[in-house]
Amino acid sequence: MQRIELDGVPVLTEAGPDRVTAALVFGVGHRDETFATAEVTHLVEHLVMGALPKSHLKCNAVTDVDVTAFYATGRPEAVAAFVDGVCRAISDLPTERLDSEIGVLQAEDCSTGNSTYGSLWAARYRLAGPGLVATGGPGAAYLTEEVVRAHARRWFVRENAALWWHGELPEAGLSLSLPSGPRPQRFLPPPRPQSAPVWTQYFAPGVGLLLSAGSTYDPAMSIGIEVLKERVRDIARHARGLSYHADSMALDLHPALREVAVVIDAREGQESEVARILWEQYEALSTTGPTEEELRHAVAGFEEELDGDADGVVQAELADAAYCAIAGIPFHPIADVLTDWRAMTPDRVAAALAAARRSAVLYVPEAAGFTGIHGLHRRLMCDYVPELPRGTTFRTPALTRLVNKSARLRIVVTDDGLAHGDADGDGHFIPWPAVEAVVPADDGKGFQVVGRNMCGIVVHEEMYGRKAVAAVRERIPAHLWLAPPPESRRIPAPRAPVD
Q1: Is the N or the C terminus of the chain less surrounded, counting Cβ atoms within 10 Å?
Q2: Angle at Cα 196 formed by Cα 211 and Cα 126, nearest 5°?
Q3: Taking the model in full, what pTM does it have?
Q4: Residue range 407-466, pLDDT digits in tens
Q5: Contact yes or no for 382/454 (Cβ under 8 A)
Q6: Rounded (5°) CA angle 187-192-198
Q7: Quick one: which of 430, 446, 428, 448 has its CA closest to 438?
Q8: Phi and psi at residue 454, in whole multiples of 5°?
Q9: Which phi and psi (to 5°) does residue 463 adopt?
Q10: CA distance 159 to 24
Q11: Angle 334-342/219-232 helices, nearest 10 degrees?
């Protein structure tokens, strides 16, 4: 692999086939948005791709949790023209297509809500950073031209970009005429305090386990996760028929912090049992480590993967190097990783997994009826309160409460925040300083108050009366209120974390 610099952008290259593959990568994704601006990165990506001329070039773009990439495969000159077109569109964002591309996003319906990964991250970081993936936000309809342009100006700059290129570079014509700006600093949300493993529930399907690692490179943790997935597959799928697939994802939030998530699907009604299997196998590996045979099997799988699609392996390594260049974290060539895996011992794997135990979050869906596991404390996703605070109370109409027990709701407005009580006696509380956004109802008679603590409380005239709406409205600063979208963009009720 060779690294050069072009127009102030790092370029990672390696020789390859005549038809080259390249990707222009930016260090921005869903974790860099807010609840109110969710989907803005994806919208910028769509605006850029929509500005490119028609061609038969194999090209596309993707927006993920922490990266956005524009990629293409073809003749070197054609790929260079694609990259140049992306840079030009970013430099002069075609926001005249805003409504059209918002409509495309609504048709595509790629909201990140109801993600098992997102639910795990939200259990750690709530409604910030990667935790935003759990909700999907109010939707692209609420995004304004000003917000979109500001997001592009901040994140889609040469100081936050890298290009990887597999194949021969063109002799001329490759340029990266991106706008320049300060290198954006990513917000690292504070994790919820945790001194022991916990379990939690939310609305996404599947079962998951989240672990914090103190480094972005820990081969003992990586091979341990592979063995863990293999054990769960052996038991939950092959032996008991409870699950089909096990997957994992590592998310680097900081040079000294990696969040590692393992996600397992489960047969309906068997989520609790799959969660127990996942936790039991994690505990066993943390205590005694894998067997020598399991280590050999994991290494053999790694070797077989490298022996498969040679071009794919090279491109994966180039993509990793490009991301590391943007994120400012050390890059480790695949050959070095394989060497470290081959030298791994059971004790080192056990130690790495055990060191992350206090950070462990076990996730089970709300509908699973999970009752917990000995030694794991329950963590509620939002701020549950056993008793509602004292304050001005507003209830649903008396007749409604009489004929429908589930509608026996109330809200309490206090000097400190907004509380909500449901028919089952559950209470939730949003401190005024923790209000993240207020999403208006389509009919203009109410709104939903969204808290960074993952609580969402609906306040509506038809539920609690006009005085309740006014009492809450006067407590919340104007800058937190989302403007209603134009009629042409209207969609069904906004997605938000409602408890």
Answers
A1: N
A2: 60
A3: 0.93
A4: 789 999 999 999 999 888 789 999 999 999 999 998 999 999 999 999 999 999 999 999
A5: yes
A6: 135
A7: 448
A8: 75, 5
A9: -95, -45
A10: 13
A11: 70
Q: What is the DSSP letter of 8?
A: T
Strands 446-451 and 410-413 come out as unpaired
Q: Give the contacts of 79 (CB within 8 A, at least 6 positions apart).
A: 20, 21, 22, 57, 72, 73, 165
Average pLDDT, the chain: 93
The single-letter code of the amino acid at 378 is R
Q: Output phi, psi for 152, to 5 deg.
A: -65, -40
Contact status, residue 137 vs residue 39, Cβ threshold 8 Å: yes
**From the centroid of its chain, how far is CA 247?**
15
Kindly report, residue by residue over 331-373, the tens digit of the pLDDT. Answer: 999 999 999 999 999 999 999 999 999 999 999 999 999 999 9
pLDDT of residue 113: 56
Structure tokens at 26: 């930016």
pLDDT, tens digit, 9 for 90 and up, residues 478-494: 999 999 988 777 655 54
Q: Which two tokens mark 371? A: 């009752």
| Unique residue bearing structure tokens 């990259």 | 83
Long-range contacts of 245-252 (CB under 8 A, 24+ apart): 249/117, 250/222, 251/65, 251/66, 251/121, 251/130, 252/66, 252/216, 252/327, 252/329
